Design the sequence.
């Protein structure tokens, strides 16, 4: 039995939801309301002490980190593979997953949170919100949420836009002469990038390139992507956002 603890089908949760749908795997949905901080409830923290979705539970074992979950699914259920067969092509797909984890996820999430997530909290009682955030464990996630609620400054947002410019340039280069990001066809590279890149038409449309727009169209028309997005509880899974992972810091 597969169980998936997830939020809306965007960002990290969408990566695993799309992979499950692509592979035709049945799973029990366990919805976690991230903006109500359900990911910090004791029961969820017992599955993932980091307090982050998604979490996959398979035969009683809990798996975290979207990239690793997707690769686990591809190995545990080898039918309908989502990694290319050729070693070099598999490397390219994995390189994209790491790029998402280290760079794209944080930058896209920053811009989406500023444009869509933080404004949605304005309707809530700020005193009760701050009280709820103050009780978050672990401390690293509490600090991140407190910073997100305060809001990013213009310099931070411009850094995020610059990272998106670089990401789109990489997408445009890798799509030259082919439909999918990694050689060898559709793969976990596309599954990893889409749930963050799909925020860009609404939050930074001026940064999109022609190939990126066409690729987003191909992705959104895939039956598995459509099936995952029908599991949204909001009107538009990409009309809402939560704070993403921290930026990788060097030195």
Sequence:
């Amino acid at each position: 039995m597969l169980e998936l603890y997830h939020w809306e089908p965007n960002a990290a949760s969408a990566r695993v939801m799309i992979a499950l749908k692509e592979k035709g795997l049945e799973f029990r949905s366990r919805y976690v309301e991230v903006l109500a901080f359900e990911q910090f409830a004791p029961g969820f923290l017992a599955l993932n002490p980091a307090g982050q979705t998604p979490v996959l539970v398979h035969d009683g074992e809990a798996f975290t980190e979207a990239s690793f979950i997707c690769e686990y699914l591809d190995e545990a259920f080898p039918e309908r593979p989502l990694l290319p067969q050729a070693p070099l092509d598999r490397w390219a797909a994995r390189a994209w997953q790491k790029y998402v984890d280290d760079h794209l996820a944080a930058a896209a999430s920053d811009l989406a949170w500023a444009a869509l997530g933080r404004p949605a909290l304005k309707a809530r009682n700020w005193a009760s919100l701050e009280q709820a955030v103050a009780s978050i464990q672990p401390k690293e996630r509490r600090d991140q949420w407190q910073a997100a609620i305060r809001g990013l400054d213009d310099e931070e947002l411009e850094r995020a836009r610059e990272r998106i410019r670089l990401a789109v340039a990489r997408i445009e280069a890798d799509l030259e002469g082919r439909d999918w990001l990694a050689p060898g066809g559709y793969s976990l590279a596309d599954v990893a990038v889409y749930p963050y890149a799909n925020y860009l038409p609404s939050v930074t449309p001026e940064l999109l390139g022609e190939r990126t727009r066409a690729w987003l169209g191909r992705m959104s028309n895939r039956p598995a992507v459509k099936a995952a997005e029908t599991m949204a509880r909001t009107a538009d899974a990409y009309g809402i956002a939560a704070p993403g992972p921290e930026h990788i810091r060097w030195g």
